[in-house]
Each structure stands twice: as C-alpha cells, then as structure tokens.
Amino acid sequence: MKKPAILWLNVFVFSITFLIAAIAVPYRAYTHGFDTTEIIAAIICFIYCGMSITAGYHRLWSHRTYQAHWSLRIIYALGGAFALQNSALHWSSDHRIHHKHVDKNHVDPYSAKMGFWHSHIGWMLRDHQPERYQDYSNVRDLQKDAIVMWQHKHYLLLTILMNFGVPILFGLWHGDMLNSLLLLGVLRLVLSHHTTFFINSLAHVWGKQTYTDKNTARDNGFLAFFTFGEGYHNYHHIFENDYRNGIRWWQFDPTKWFIKACQHLKLTSKLRVTPEDKIEKARLSMVLLRNQKKIAAHPNAELLLEKLQHEYDELIHKVNEFYALRKALIASKRDKLIADVENSDIMAQYQEIKRRLAEQQRSWQHMLENLA
C-alpha cells in the first residue's frame, strides 16, 4: 500500500523548532543565561497560546459549550495563530471528525489506534486525508462567525505577525533579541505544540476510563496539569458539550475557571453543563462493568453477579429519585412556588430520599469491598 505524501513544510517546521529548543536554548542558557523577566514573559506567552486552544479552539468553537463576546473571540483568534495549529475553522473541523469517528482508523484524523506516534504528530507529517482541506461542511455554523472567517482568511499573515512580532517587540523592549526569539519564539512554540498533542496521544492511552469504555480516551490528572485541564479526556469524550473537563472542585481545570470567571465579566454566557445524574449514572455503570469482569471467573460468579446487579439497580433507582426531587426543590425555590421551602413537604421528602440514597451507597460500597 502506497504511503501518503510527506508534508515537507510541516516536517521542516516541527524538526527545526524542536532542534533549536533542544540544543540552542540549553546552550544559550548555559553560556549567557535567561533573566526572570524573559522566563515570565515566555510562560505568559505559553499560557496565552494554550488557553487560546483549549478555551477558544476547543471548548468554544469545536464544541460550542458556551458563547463568548467578540473581544474575547479576537483574543482567541490571535492566540490560536500564535500557537501555530492551523486556523480555528480547520482545527474545529478536524476535531469534530475526531469525536464523530473516534478510534476509527483512516477516518479519525488522529486515531490513537494507529499508534502513539501517529496520534501525537505523525498525522500532520503525511497527507493522510487531503479531502479535509477542502471540505468544511461540518463547521457551517463557524462560517457564520466573522472573526473565525477573518482569522481563516488571514491565517498565514497572523501566524507570521504573532510568532515573529511578539518576540521581536519584547526583545526590542527588553534589550536581548536572541533570548527573546529563543524563549518567547521557539521554546514557547515547541512546548505549546507538544502539550496540545499530548491530548491526542497520551490522553488516549494513559489514565482511567471513569465514565465510558466505548473509546480510548482516558482521565489523567497529571496530564491535566500540562494541558490546562484537558487531561480529563474520558469525561470529555462522553460529555463533549460540557464547558468543563474537570468537574470536581479539586480537579485542575484552569480553562473551566477562566471561562467561568469571564462570565462574571460578561465576556462569556450560556455555559453548558451536563446534568449531575447523567454523570453519576455513567460513573456507576463503569464501576459495575469493572466489578462484573473481576468476578466473572469466581466459583460463585452467577450468584455474585446477580447480587451485584440487584445492588446496582437499587442504587440507580435511588439516584433517579434523589435527582428528580432535587430538581423539583430547585424549581420551587426559583419560581417561589412554596412560601417557606425549608419547612415544606418537598424539603422533607428531599431529606428522606437523600438519607435513603446514602444508605444505598453504603450498601453498594460494602458489596464492592466484599468483592475486592
């Protein structure tokens, strides 16, 4: 089978920038050094690129998980050009194909089942799917966004202005052009590239399948630290329309925090979240599946599986009851249908259902501990 044509420009850019970052930057650090201002400026530029991809390209444009003010969209568009990862239109088109056909080799642009190298960077070094560069039918909604189309039309110019202009301007201001080009230009770009690429590669092979095993995506808190919260990838692949990836308060997701903070500044709106009962039922279904596999070879497997399924069914019933009543309670408070909600019958029912759910959760946990 004939291999796809090599994209020599991509090979050149990725190779040269990596070699400079790996050789020239350490050599310059050893022989000349970088001062604190230069290092902080490089970190700020790295964060700007990363957040433009995660908050802009990914959660805003690819998945439409919230709406953003035009000023914020311009910031994302410039940051995306700075990150040098193609236009928002093209990036979003590729990403929607990835979600629609995840893990399907030769359809998913960066299928993890084609190996780590392919999903990380190899898919961009050969012309695997040339038709992608002509067909934007899956992003017609984005073609109505004037800022997206402005960036797409002037993408090459914007990448040159951002990737050379920012380091040059900083170098002129700070007084060391070479240091600026190496840190803010090359090293920042290489780190931005490969931390983003980790989401396509490592986040599909390393971590836990917390909510679904229907695809290779994994949840990994360590990766989340380097990818601005994108490491909770298993959650994202089952609930892609949620503006959050790390849904727990303790999970590192600065992209989520940034989007939420911008809501208070009236820069973002209509933030979409997944109902908690759907999240909990998805998590419990995976707990059930893992334990079913664990006890499949047990001598009393049939009896244990029956008990496990019964406990699971009871827990799901209680979860449904609890969240249905909680929704009714919230609606009552919002609509002021009950004069004194805290002393109402619905509150009493809510507290009783909450108690029963806690008892069922303890029973479920006890069952799992006995199976361990």
TrEMBL record:
It is a multi-pass membrane protein. It is found in: Membrane. GO terms for molecular function: oxidoreductase activity, acting on paired donors, with oxidation of a pair of donors resulting in the reduction of molecular oxygen to two molecules of water. InterPro entries: Acyl-CoA_DS, FA_desaturase_dom. One of its GO terms (biological process) is fatty acid biosynthetic process. The keyword Transferase does not apply. It comes from the Bacteria. Keywords: Coiled coil, Fatty acid biosynthesis, Fatty acid metabolism, Iron, Lipid biosynthesis, Lipid metabolism, Membrane, Oxidoreductase, Transmembrane, Transmembrane helix. GO terms for cellular component: membrane. Its main location: membrane. Residues 298-363 form a coiled coil. The chain crosses the membrane at residues 6-27, 39-58, 155-175, 181-199. Residues 42-260 form the Fatty acid desaturase domain. Belongs to the fatty acid desaturase type 2 family. This is Delta-9 acyl-phospholipid desaturase.
